Amino acid sequence: MMTAIDRGLAGQSITELKRGLEAKRYSAREVIEDLFRRAERFKAYNAFAYLDQEAALKAAKAVDEALAKGQQGSRPLGGVPVSVKDLINTAGMRTAYGCRLYADHVPAADATCVAQVRAAGGIIFGKSTTPEFGHKIMTDSPLHGATGNPWNIQRSCGGSSGGAAVAVALGLGPIAITTDGAGSSRIPAAVCGVYGLKPSLGRVPNDGASDVFNLMVYNGIMARMPEDLGIGLRAMSAPHAGDPWSRYFPPMPPLAERPSVAGRRFLMIRRYSNRYLDPEIEAALEDTGRKLEAAGAVVEEFDGSTFEWSLDVARRLLRVNQAARYTRMVAEQREELDPSFVRIVEEAQEIDITRIGADMQERTRLYQRVDALFAQADYLLMPTTAGTALPITQNQHGPFVLDGKEIGSLRDEWYPYTIPYNVTGHPALSLPHSLHTNGLPIGIHVVGRWGDEVGLIDIARAMDEVTAASRLAAPPLRQETVQ
Questions:
Q1: Quick one: which of 56, 185, 304, 419 has the most CB atoms within 10 Å?
Q2: Which pLDDT tens digit goes with each residue over 269-317?
Q3: What is the pTM of this model?
Q4: Cβ-count burial of 357 within 10 angstroms (0-12 exposed, 13-18 middle, 19+ buried)?
């Protein structure tokens, strides 16, 4: 007996998928039909808030007609199925924001990043699950229920881009469009064993944000194959006048033909505020450092516990933005909302306005402190989370519990690594490393200079050649076949 991996047509890389379409080995329609059969097969994981087979088949028909005329090959995402997080507007396709109050909401226009993906030939086929208004790191909501981890359905897939991570991990599209407000693209990627990228502030237009000048929430991307991050990100990162940060952002350079980390300098950070770090995750971090050194990189230790990461600043700035947007909704319709969401909005109302003014100034100082680290190194290297996937029943406001013992708050102890870079604007990537002995994925987090998404992706590509992490497959994809 041997284990075969069943990823389906839509679980191929973008390059493989396009090559097969252009060679007429299958049609775009066949890809979409196969995807929807697989979505039904994996329905129990609850990766999608909404699926639109009719719209996807219509788009696939247009791709097939263009291919028949020899017109499709130049489009970077021609015929590629792409899911979109349920927080991001999609024209003619339900966008509920994970909230019962918006269960029938159908936007009239696409978010700019979605419009750019469509223009690049991507087929938008559905909306991935998210907690209500993306407010927490677990993916569950009163409207859509809980989304299970593909490696263990009783474990959380993280949040708030949890459905996107599950979809990519199960081969339901090679890439997914996400958002990231405190690690929402990177935490689910880490605990589901895929790649998750939060771009630099300005790389991807976010003109739909309520406050485009003080952005801390980014449109991002997930993929199973690291090179697909680059293809997808380039397709959704053209400047847009509605987002001042994107207007003059330099174009994204192409990926190197052969990725190399030779000569690159890394600061390896084991801990921030967290007292706990799973020994196997720490060992994976050390292994990553050794592999980078073997490939010619320079890796030095940096004591992150002595650095002021300003996690509370990030929390307060996010919360007051949520309060400004949702206080009236909570006051008038709280019974229809997730109690967890109600709690954070009401807590935000208690924050002193002078405290927020000081926090906005501290954001500048944190950016400057973090950016100064790049005088010592090209990249920062750390875990993505201090432990593997949490139980699916984990309370967002409850403590991080290990072996029956309370370790501390989730923010301080389980995921402090991702939060600062939403404040500072630096690009950050979670890459899969290996599996823990508990059978769950381990993620490693890499942070770069503003605008250096290509460098991060090249690191992921170089590491993947050594670890083969992109070829790890969650149990639902494994089939025993007789040879």
A1: 185
A2: 999 989 999 999 999 999 999 999 999 999 999 999 999 999 999 999 9
A3: 0.98
A4: exposed
